[in-house]
Amino acid sequence: MNLGKSQRLLVFTASIALLAGLTTGCGGGNSGGKEPAASPGASATGSSSQSAESGGDPVKIKFAGWGDPSEKEVFTKLLKGFEEKYPTIKVEYLHIPADYVGKMNTILAGGDAPDVFYVPDGDFGRWVSQGLLHPIEDLVNASSIDTGDMWESGLIRYRYDGAVNGQGPLYALPKDIGPTVLYYNKDLFNKMNVPFPSADTPMTFEQLLDTAKKLTIEENGKVKQYGMGPIWWEGFVLGNGGAFLSDDRREFLGNGTAAVEALQFAADLSNQHKVVPNAAALKDMNDSQMFQTGRLAMMITGRWMVPEFRKLAFDWDVAPLPVNKWAGWSGSVGLGIYSKSKHIEASYKLVEYLGGPEGQKEQSLMGFAIPSFKSMAATDVFLQPGQKPEHAEVFIKAAENEVPGPWTNLPNAKWFDMLSQGLAPMWEGKKSAADVLNDLKPKIDAAIKEGNPAVFK
């Protein structure tokens, strides 16, 4: 999933705004407790189109997605293979390289969207609750897709029961799953005589701070080399045993002790210990650029950076997120069918092809995605021995333990936008985490109730 292009970076004031705009993509829309309707004239198991395997008249469908040139090239190849497999289905590829969510919102509002399109997990709740996605549970069950071999954390985020995400029937198949891990510059570790992080056991907060201090270089009052990159704070909360919402999704719990401790520690890494660059330090060069130029020893990101980092001159590897235990969040992009599509059966064939073994293999071979199928992830298709990173299995263990990001828990994620933006005084060192989160709790609770009335029925 090229999450690095669509959903990064989560840190401090600048990243808070980025997270709200790109990761959640939220803003309005709820189901009002009603199940989204299937497309007119189509059931969950068929449509008015000719069978995709029959010799009927050709069916033309549209497919929309984003991605850099390499991803576009892969999907162009995949679509050609799909058309060869299903000669009665022709696919028009709409590649949207920038502002995908904004442009799709406009297209969807116009009522004539592509038949199949990328569904970022942060936008799934809003789109499904507005009745824009066709239910595919029956189609999946009748197809060759083995959901038992797929990462449950990938599937669950595309379920919706009319009130909350994460339960009910499927409305999309994961195109990918993007577990987040720790990348580190092995050359810098060797130069500073610092032991490499374990590939099996996550660092504790204390170990992270100690390691980051040893890798930070300050000259004349200015940091020349940072030990650790921007903090993806949601994983810190989860790794410390904290929670964002109650089990019934009705209450914000982010001001609990474990969450407060984790967020205060994350803020202190920059404001107090100076081992993480602040917003000002990231103004001219982001964390990826700092890592690539040797100014950053460790950083958090996903598998999508592997192809780019394989071009680097120095040696690097990956380790678990440094959050006390195997924990954190993974991102994902789904493949959904437009609820008004006139070709549901043909559209599902494309979803099945791209989200199935054929599509997953091609994406994985590029290096930027972990397959949606666990069995495939355990093969050389993904592990790619002889290529970096040496410990690619870290991604597999991460996928087993990381959960969907908190912005995926409710159809209307305005509450999470409020949280992300409201943390700014803490990142700036102006207020403590406890004060910020206690101030935010009543506002966030109100936003949860206002934006998701079906949850309270």
TrEMBL record:
One of its GO terms (molecular function) is maltose binding. Residues 29-56 are annotated as: Disordered. Keywords: Signal, Transport. One of its GO terms (cellular component) is ATP-binding cassette (ABC) transporter complex, substrate-binding subunit-containing. Residues 1-20 form the signal peptide. Belongs to the bacterial solute-binding protein 1 family. PANTHER family: MALTOSE-BINDING PERIPLASMIC PROTEIN (PTHR30061), MALTOSE_MALTODEXTRIN-BINDING PERIPLASMIC PROTEIN (PTHR30061:SF50). This is Carbohydrate ABC transporter substrate-binding protein (CUT1 family). It comes from Cohnella phaseoli.
